[in-house]
Amino acid sequence: GKPAEGTVIATAFQSAGKGQDGNSWESEAGKNILMSMILYPEFLDVSRQFILSMMVALGIIDFLEDFLPDDILFIKWPNDIYASDGKIGGILINNEIMGRSFDHVIAGIGINVNQITFADHLPNPVSLRSMTGKTYPVRELIAALTRCLHDRYEQLRRGEYRQIEAEYYGYLLGMDEWREYAYGGSVVMARI
Questions:
Q1: Which end of the chain is more exposed for a tag (fewer CB within 10 A), N or C?
Q2: In this predicted model, what pLDDT tens digit does every residue of 71-83 receive, in sequence order?
């Protein structure tokens, strides 16, 4: 059947976690948040689908602010959540569109919570535990994150697009800074 809007499906382990552009999301069993939330944003025009990603990213930032100072939290476009210079989480959103409206949206979220050892090929992973030295109850954190996402979704439902966009850009890593970017097979200097 069709799950209720806001349904969260979580697991303690996944063997084939998906990331952006075919990358994988790796996680030790029972140590991290691995969840998907199902949404039916019928009120949202499909031309504004990226605001769903903005909303989810801000919900994760809201959640992480309870554990980490907000001045070290960033969104690395398009779907990574950073704490200082390390990746603490990621988002993968699957939009199913029928004509001019959404059939459903699945927001997949991975957040490193208690894991402290990561594969060597990962460039810069961090976790709540590696940053704070504390161990956290993952199931309780899933419930807290779900509340933050629900609050942001309600903000979206109210049509507060400009506020969401302004907050998103406030957390965007590299905003208004000249940085090196890989583009078209070379490295270029650019500014968001």
A1: N
A2: 999 999 888 999 9
